[in-house]
UniProtKB/TrEMBL annotation:
This is Lycopene beta-cyclase. It comes from the Bacteria. Pfam families: Lycopene_cycl. Coiled coil: none annotated. Gene3D superfamilies: FAD/NAD(P)-binding domain (3.50.50.60).
Amino acid sequence: MSPTHERPDATTASVVVLGLGPAGRSVTHLLARAGVDVVAVDTAPDRPWRPTYAAWHDELPAWLPPTVVSTTSPARAFATSEHELARRYCVLDTVGLQQHLSLGGARVVAARVLDADAHRVHLDDGTALTADLVVDARGSRPDPTLAQQTAIGVVLPRSSAPMLEQTWFMDWRRDNGTGPGDPPSFLYVVPLDDEHVLVEETCLVGRPALGFDELRRRLHTRLAARGIRLTGDEREEHVRFAVEAPAAPADPTTPTSTARMPGGRRPTTLRLGARGGLMHPATGYSVALALDVAERVATAVADGTTTASDLEALVWPRPARRVQALRAIGLTTLLRLPADGVAQFFEAFFRLPTALQRGYLTDREHPALTLAAMASMAARLPPSLTKVAVTSALPALPSTASVTRRRVR
């Protein structure tokens, strides 16, 4: 069934979803599949997705069919030494994923949102939408004051060089024309399919992040040092997004909108994806989490839960809030590290047991595991870098630790 594109003067639905990126499209797809009356709004709902989405294989939700996974491979990393990672790394088929998340059964409106609250959405053409629940999945707002991740990538034939036969999650070697005091960037290499590979130079986090021209220069220098000459005709991929997003409210009933409701209460939308801070603040990873959360939300709505505060408690249970706070400390540490300390930081990370690596990168249910990973890393760092990690944690750690202790007794 194809989606119905509508532009009525007024529309009432059970759920209105704003934005049709991975977070919005997946929740719309799952709601419609469950028989929920859903309207989706996007300025260009049929626009093809362009980014390359990737995740650890064990992060992908069970409802996602294997056909949307383009490649799965073992991954390697290089910080100050080389590491073989135990978890398998997946690149999703971007076209296949978008097609699988069909909008059949949903009503789709092509328009720009002017304002939205818990139950009402006003569009730029005068359309007014009313719903029991409004889900805001329009991505993060551009803000140059926030820490960002940037990258420049090129798509190459896998046969171009032996190094392209391996998946490199991170390669921090300085063969990109930089010195120890320069802001660091790493090489990221993933197979897109049997014949093509994406090779990126990535600034993990920066405030400000490295610009595209500098990253392009570094990528060309690095590839030339490894025997790969670019022709200039390669397809480029540009990446820029904020890794700092609006924090989840401290309490599920805390309002997130400035619009007033009768009686003095302020309504709130349910924010998903990057809009709701559902990304790893120290790595920017978000797609697998968006797909997992979409299923939880759609199931709850189909079962009769349509209050944004109740659903936000589902999206952000207390353990997940504590984990996110701990990971935000990791972001602060990365931003404060000296340039020549970043590779040592990741050397400590890649030396962690796989369970602790997963606890820091993926797990949202066990704050104690995340805290153990961070403590173990701090113990492995040189004293000067341990000091940076500890002082980054001090302002937030007491409240985080108290919650963690209560959960592990």
